[in-house]
Amino acid sequence: MKIAVCIKRVADSETRVKIAADGKSLDEAGVKFILNPYDEFAVEEALRRKEQAGAGEVVVIACGSGASQETIRTALAMGADRGVLLETAALPADGLSIARALATELKDGGYDLILFGKMAIDDYNHQVGPMTAELLGLPCVTCVAHLDLAAGKGTAEREVEGGMEEVEFPLPAVLTVDKGLNEPRYPALKGIMAAKKKPLEVKPTTLGAPGLLVLAMIPPPERKAGRIVGEGAAAIPELLKLLREEAKVL
Amino acid sequence: MSNVLAILEQRDGTLRKVSHEIVTGARRLADALGGEVHALVCAAGPVSGVDAAGRHGADTVITATNAAFGQYAPEGYARTIAEHAKAGGYGAVVCAASAQGKDLSPRIAARLSVALAADITDVSVDGGAIVVTRPVYAGKALLKVKVVSKPAVLSLRPNVFTPVERPRPGIVEAVAATGDGGRVVVKGIKAAAAGALDVAEAPIVVSGGRGLKEPANFKLLEELAQAFGGRAAVGASRAVVDAGWRPHGDQVGQTGKTVSPSLYIAVGISGAIQHLAGMRTAKVIVAINKDKDAPIFKIADYGVVGDLFEIVPALTSEIRKLNG
Q1: Residue spans per domain, chain B
Q2: Who has the most CB within 10 Å: A81, A249, B144, B312?
Q3: Looking at this predicted complex, what is its ipTM?
Q4: Stated pTM of the model
C-alpha cells in the first residue's frame, strides 16, 4: 500500500492567542508548534494500514514555511518513510490554493490512499482534503471515525447530527479522519533517531493568487465578568432565580 | 445586482431546521447585494417543509430530484449544485457548516475553482465586496476576510444565523437532476440512542470533567440533562474523553466541538484554555467546581463553589420540579 498523509504545523491548542503587529495574524513569539492533532490520527492510520499490508510506503507531505520540516520529522519519528515539504511563505486563508499545490505533488504519485486530518485546529477550514480530492478526480469521504478496507473498496463511518453515517467508496480515495479512528503512537527514541536520517525533500512552491484576503484579526468579544452565586447546594435557589429572572434561560 | 443561491438540507425527505438559517443568511446577503435568493435542495422527490423557505426570504425554491439523492450523495449533489451555480451566474452560494455542508461546500468551491469561506459567523457587503467574519483558533480570535473570488462560496456556522421571518414568494419548482449519485455512496445513518441530542445542536449542554472522579458518575449529569426534558445534551472535557470515559463526539473544546447553546453548565471542569475556546460563545455559562480559583469561574456568568456530588443532585431535583 502506498499512502500519502498531508499534514500541517499548527499552534498548540493551549496557545493564548496574541495578535501580531500586522493586525492580521498570530504573534508567534513564544508559541509552541505541533503536528495538527487530527493529522496524528491520519499518520497513525497510514502506518497501521501499511503494517497490515506487510509492504508499502507512507509519505508525509506538508505545505508551509521551512519550520514545517520539524513537523514532518515528528511524523517520520512515528514511522513514516519519507517526507516532502512544499515550501512557501505564510499560508493563505484560502484552502483552494493549498489544495492545488498538494494536488500537483500527489497527481502522479500512484497512491492507493491519501489521508488528511478532518481539519486543522488553527484555521478550522476543514476544506483542503475534499478540495484536493476534487482536483485529483478521486472519491473522498470526510471525518472518518471508523474505517474498513478490502480489495479495492472501503466502508467508513462519519459522525453526522444525531448518528453515524455509513459510507461505501472505491479505492484509490482521499479520506479525512476524525478523532477516535485510532490511538496515535508516541514516537519512540529509536524512531526519533531514525527520523533524522530519513529522506525529506524540500520543494520551493509558489501558491496561486488567493481568493480570500485577510483584512484583520481581532480578539473575540469579552464576556461580562460573572459572579460566584454562593457555596454548596444552599446556592441553588439563588442560582435558579438568576437563570430565570436575569439570564432568562429557564 | 447579483442573486444568491442558498443550499438547503433535507433528511429522509424532510427539510432540516438548519435550512431556515441558511435562507436567513442568504437573504441578508441578497438584500445587501440587491438580488434574489434562490434556494436549492437535492432530494429523491418532493421535500416536506420546503414551502417554508419563502417565509424566511427565498424568492424561489428549486428541488433538484434524482433517484440517487434520497441519502446524501456527495459527488452527485456537488455536481448538481456547481452546474446550477454556474448556469445561474450567482454572486454567492451559501451552505451550512453542518456535517453535510462541511463535506459538500469544499467540493462545490473546488468545482467552481473558487475559494470557500468556511464556518462564518457574520457577513456584510462593503463597497460591493463580500466581507465575512470567521472564528479561528476555536474562537480565540476572529478573522475579517474579504472574498475576492466569484461566486463567493460561504458556509454558515449553525446556531448563529437565527431564522428571521422575511416573507417572499418562495415558489417551489422541481427540476430533474441528471447523472448518477457518484462513487461515494451513503448507505444510511445509524441513529444515536433515542432522544440523544448532539452537543453541537442542543440548546442546553451539561458538561463534565475530571472532577466527576470516575466514568460512572456521569450518571449525575445524564440525570440533570434529562431533567431539562429533552432539551439538553451531555458534553465532556478533553481530559475525560482522552481517558476513555466519554465518546469523542461529546468532547467540547478546540480539538472537539465548538458549542453555542443558550445555557452551558460546566461541572468539575477547571477550564483549560482549549476547553474555554470551545464554549465561550454560549449565551449563559454556569460553573460548578470545588476550587474557587479555577479558571472556569473567570468566564462563567454564575459560579457555585463546592462539592458537585452534593450540588448536582440538588440542582437536578429543582430543575425537575420546574419542568414537572
Answers
A1: 4-176, 204-323
A2: B312
A3: 0.95
A4: 0.94
